[in-house]
Predict the structure.
Amino acid sequence: MDSHVALATVNGQGWKQLGELGLAFALSSLIGLEREWRQKAAGLRTHTLVGLGAALFIIISKYGFNDVLSDGRVILDPSRVAAGVVSGIGFIGGGLIFVRGDIVRGLTTAAIVWMTAAIGMACGAGLVLLALVVTAGHFVVVFVYPEIAARLPPSNYLGIGLRVVYEDGRGILRQIVTESTERGLAIHRMVTRQIEGNRIAGVPAVAVTFEVRGKSTIEELTLALDRIDGVLGVETTDFADDRG
């Protein structure tokens, strides 16, 4: 019986390997459940399959080439399969990242998919403790870190988008820039558009959208701009959305 078990382990199809696959399945499913609960693009099935598949790849790299061994010596590099998993999983992660204007979505999900593959690889390699610790670290990051981030004080240099509608042909844009710089606010980007129909309340109008950064509060600038003669409206906006 002992020789049979030892032979199965050497061949890579014993209880040890089945246990490693089972652990990868369980840990990947836990991460997938959290992603599914948060309604992310990659959920339970994606993470479970990635982790389980990664574990199988590692087991294959460890035990799948016994027929090319010579006198117990390895004459190839078994780690090449693991390296292929690391690079190949990037294609899945890349497909989860979306860019709209200056807003990037899906980075965390892509990173979690990549990490799930690493956990599966650790299970397949028999590094059970490391797989458990990294899985626990995942839940700390997704549940505890958002609470920490929410308690951080707001940054004095956070970029804010403003949209100002004003009468055309009165040099008001220059006054807008002056009001911003006098309050220590730097204008980083600016887009000017004609208003649909080119008129508001019977006067020609233009809308300018810009991002400001600095220590002064946005409320101060908003009030100052609203007091400029010829300004028809001031509102905060998402600069990326306003660019269309």
Summary: The longest strand covers residues 186-200.
